[in-house]
Amino acid sequence: MLHRWILPLLLYVIYNLLRLTWRIRVVESEKFSQARKEKRRMIYAHWHGSIPGVLYLLKPYNVVTMISGSKDGTLVDTIARWLGGKTVRGSSTRGGATALKGILRLANEGYNPGIAIDGPKGPRGKVKPGVLEISRVLGAEIHPLTVTCNRAWVFEKAWDKTFLPKPFAKVVVYWGDPAFTVGRNDDPRDPKLADRLEVAMANAEQHVRNLIAAP
Known about the structure:
The protein is of the alpha/beta class. Helices cover about 40% and strands about 20% of the residues. It contains seven helices and nine strands.
């Protein structure tokens, strides 16, 4: 009972109180804004450790996200749904096929998949094939989603070094240009595709760091 309702409610309240103090700036690249305007199929690719910094964007950006079927995943799933996001349960290590079907179904209903591309267990910063397979099946552009802040708690013991912006932190979110769309005849397990997306993510991360450093 504690894990199912009381703890999620407590964390939901704390998260929203924190968020109200953040000085948030959301920046969209021109190509990203144009893709949204044209309602093109898109996938939002982000690192697993950045999840707390982007949860509040689930509803305004019409996101469906895949969340682990673990107990910790249940906690995150509850909070994500209370924030207005669509979720499916599963990961590459448990319930992957069911989760993929759910992602594809909701994408066909107009939602945009948000994928933690190095999840669920890492290694940190290394792209897994799942996002590439979803892009191939949907014919969807992969757009980097990066976030940084000037003050944060970093969970050093977590494999993904999850960070949560501190009260009154300056938070900058950047939605980047499309990295690419995986072709129907491409192999999602091709390491060249993963490398290509990692380069695109690195470029987007550099851009968001430049944005937060600017006066």
